[in-house]
Amino acid sequence: MKIFVFLLIPAALLFAIDHDAFFTGKTMRVDYYHSGKAGEEHFSLDQIYETGTWAGSKKHLITPLNLGEYQVRLYDSASGELIYSRGYSTMFNEWQTTSEAKERYKTFHETFRLPFAKKPVKLAVARRDRQMRFREIWSTEIDPQRTPLINKAVNKPDYRVWPLMQNGDPSEKVDLVLLGDGYSAQDMEQFRRDARTYNEEMFNTEPFKSNRGRFNVWVVEVVSPESGISRPDKGIWKNNALGSRYFTFGSPRYILTENNKALRDAAGLVPYDYINILINDNRYGGGGIYNLYTTTYMRTDHPGQEWQKGYVYVHEFGHAFAGLGDEYYSSSTGYDEFYNKDVEPWEPNVTALRDKKNIKWKEMLTPGIALPTPWNKAAYDSLAMARSRLDRLATDYYEKREPFISRQHALLAGSPYAGMVGAFEGAGYESHGLYRPAVDCRMFSLGLVDFDPVCRRALLDVINYLSD
Ligand SMILES: [Zn+2]
């Protein structure tokens, strides 16, 4: 059989781009403004920086992963050859699905991190159309030798930096950077403990646990003038270094920052592929956008609820790292309609099941399983409904919620299809018409459950892409 081994080599490797022929080994940070409203968007350059060591893969310059709402691409200007691509999603495209975006324009500051080109390149941005195919919507020429264009003096804030896990060359490993927000100078000892605790939490979860040696983790001690972050819905405003705040898109628990420049300056002190922001505040919340960053709250006033922070930390990393979609559907969000159920979503763990024979996790299906796969949805939904009627602000909320959560978990764990891969209705904030791969997963229920096999494979695909 050995003779046929070459057939298994992915196309991306057969046409591998020679890193050293096109790139210097440093990082090109391209800062730009992304503006628009629902159905309209514009790009304009801010600054292009030459910064430190390239942390991405030097072997897989063209992404083998079909992930993200957008794709950034570099073409060699002389030959027109595609020499780099990577998928990503943005706060902008989430904002476009809110009602505010129907009414007004808004600008977000965003960053591309690219291998630094030796010769002139065309940078292009592609976005998915309604059929989920990428179409280029903007491009600009960049001559890396042109002196006034490239800024070589990126801002380096004076934060202490230390390695938490070191396993090798950044271009051959997955590089994470952990940043704190809302930690004042007095809170820094707490931040160090949080960084260690939640990093361990992640590396105790598969598939990270078995692939620990393929990651580097850096910690940047970002000092905020004040403790905590803003809660605009409560009129509470804090001066925190990275600008993270609750109430993104009107959702009390959704934490994001629009201060991209401060975030990138702080993260850029080390080589990184992914950013996790630890939030020194005590209201439940977090966020995670594919190839952007995660946020997770780190304090709680509710004894017995510490586990929720670990759940959020790893769940959000699933979004940011592998573009995993939310599989839950019984919780409110700020989006009007996030998925169009008429087309197959790109997220690896959500399907509209429009073509049962070619379901995207076809080769992982439990043999003989029914599609869609029956599960005790009605019983689960009635528990979710009762749970949603509880007053979230009541002092005994967590006590009252607990029996519902345990009954929901018991129901999922007791399902005859537990542990199997099929297509279970209810995913992506939709009770009907979208399906998830397993009855339970870290992307589905609120609890310390493992990622299902389809999510685990998607996470492993990213580990393989960035480290070898
Ligand atoms: Zn989520």
Q: How are the SSEs ordered, and which strands pair?
A:
Layout: H1 11-14, H2 19-22, E1 23-37, E2 40-53, E3 70-76, E4 82-88, H3 91-95, H4 100-103, E5 106-117, E6 121-128, E7 134-142, E8 150-151, E9 160-165, E10 174-181, H5 188-203, E11 215-221, E12 244-245, E13 256-257, H6 260-267, E14 274-279, E15 286-289, E16 293-297, H7 307-322, H8 377-388, H9 397-413, E17 424-427, E18 430-436, H10 453-466
Parallel strand pairs: 2-8, 10-11, 10-14, 14-16
Antiparallel strand pairs: 1-2, 1-5, 3-4, 3-6, 6-7, 9-11, 12-13, 15-16, 17-18
Helix pairs in contact: 8-9
Question: Characteristics of this structure?
Answer:
alpha+beta, 468 residues, Collagenase (Catalytic Domain), 6-stranded mixed sheet, Immunoglobulin-like, binds zinc ion, 27% strand, 4-stranded mixed sheet, disordered N terminus
Sum this structure up briefly.
With 468 residues, the chain is α+β, with helices and mostly antiparallel strands. The chain has three domains: 2-151, Immunoglobulin-like; 160-322, Collagenase (Catalytic Domain), CATH 3.40.390; 356-450, no CATH class. It contains ten helices and 18 strands.
General description of the model:
By secondary structure, the chain is α+β, with helices and mostly antiparallel strands. The chain folds into three domains: 2-151, Peptidase M64, N-terminal domain (Immunoglobulin-like, Sandwich), CATH 2.60.40; 160-322, 3-Layer(aba) Sandwich (Collagenase (Catalytic Domain)); 356-450, no CATH class. It is 21% helix and 27% strand. The chain has ten helices and 18 strands. It has helices at residues 11-14, 19-22, 91-95, 100-103, 188-203, 260-267, 307-322, 377-388, 397-413, 453-466, and strands at 23-37, 40-53, 70-76, 82-88, 106-117, 121-128, 134-142, 150-151, 160-165, 174-181, 215-221, 244-245, 256-257, 274-279, 286-289, 293-297, 424-427, 430-436. The strands form five sheets. The protein has a six-stranded mixed beta sheet, covered by helices on one side. α8 runs antiparallel to α9. It is globular. The protein starts with 10 loop residues before the first helix and ends with a helix.
